[in-house]
Amino acid sequence: MIESFRNLATSMRIYQRNVSGRKFEPEAPYMKFVVKPGDVCLHFGGSDGRHSYLMSQIIGPSGKVHVYEPSNYSYAIMSRLIRWHGLKNVTPHNAAIGDNEGTMVLSVPRKLSGHLGRAYGVVTDRGGTASDEMLATGNKTEFVDQPTAVVSLDGLMAKEKLDHVDFIRCDVEGAEIKLIEGGRKTLERDLPSLLIEIHPFSLERNFSSSAETVRDYFIRLGYRMWQLNDDDSEMFESTQIDPKRRWKDYYLIHPSRAASLPEGMFRKAMMS
Questions:
Q1: What is the distance between the alpha carbons of residues 14 and 242, in angstroms, rounded to a whole number?
Q2: Where do the structural domains in the chain lie, given as residue ranges?
Q3: How many alpha carbons lie under 13 Å from residue 213 in its C-beta half-sphere?
Q4: pTM of the model
Q5: Does the pLDDT at position 126 exceed 80?
Q6: pLDDT (tens digit, 9 = 90+) per residue, 169-187?
Q7: With bands split at pLDDT 50, 70 and 90, how would you rate the model's confidence at 133?
Q8: Backbone phi, then psi, for 113, in 5-degree steps?
Q9: Is 163 exposed, middle or buried (0-12, 13-18, 19+ CB in 10 A)?
Q10: pLDDT of residue 116
Q11: 3-state helix, strand, coil in the chain (%, to 5)
Q12: Are 105 and 123 in contact, with CB atoms under 8 Å apart?
């Protein structure tokens, strides 16, 4: 009962933030320079769906968003908000992104307050892990494991009958390497623009990979990369993984999309 009430209260709070345009992540407003009407978008690690909400406003009725969230708790919030906002161009899925279709475990740490640290949940084949170092290495950290369906990028493209993808938002606590491993065909064919949160610690600890491996894959394909400065006031082009932050969002845009980008900073930079 308490959990259900908390879920509903959180939904109401986020609904008010959406309609009033408050407290979006600092990278989110730049999506309007990447996403355009009619685009096909994918959102992995949807959480409460706030990025999908913004995408929905931009792409209009001719576009579509498929959003994937493995946490049952967060999925309930996200799908409720999609209904409340009447987002007919957004389709929710209760699943995680991986390199193959199947079932894995969403491992979520319980914080000292007793609440679950859902923002730190990691999809794993063994359970009992988390992406945040303080939680993942604490001797007394308790983890709550939830089975979750897993989809791959290449697999979902076929299942949902999508012939291309234009934009991907990815915030999956280190599983960004799994996005690549299960989506090479789609990524290398469509060269979609991405807003991807890269998690160096979780990539190393939970996925035996690295932030540089994720970055280098896209750079080898010819992508250019942007990120916010230290106080989040300005977006600048750089291929450096920020050493000061535990995780960070990066825009990755391929030059082949330059001419079709909306008017704005990315188009201007790539067309100059």
A1: 29
A2: 2-96+152-271
A3: 18
A4: 0.91
A5: no
A6: 999 999 999 999 999 999 9
A7: very low
A8: -70, -15
A9: exposed
A10: 55
A11: 40, 25, 35
A12: yes
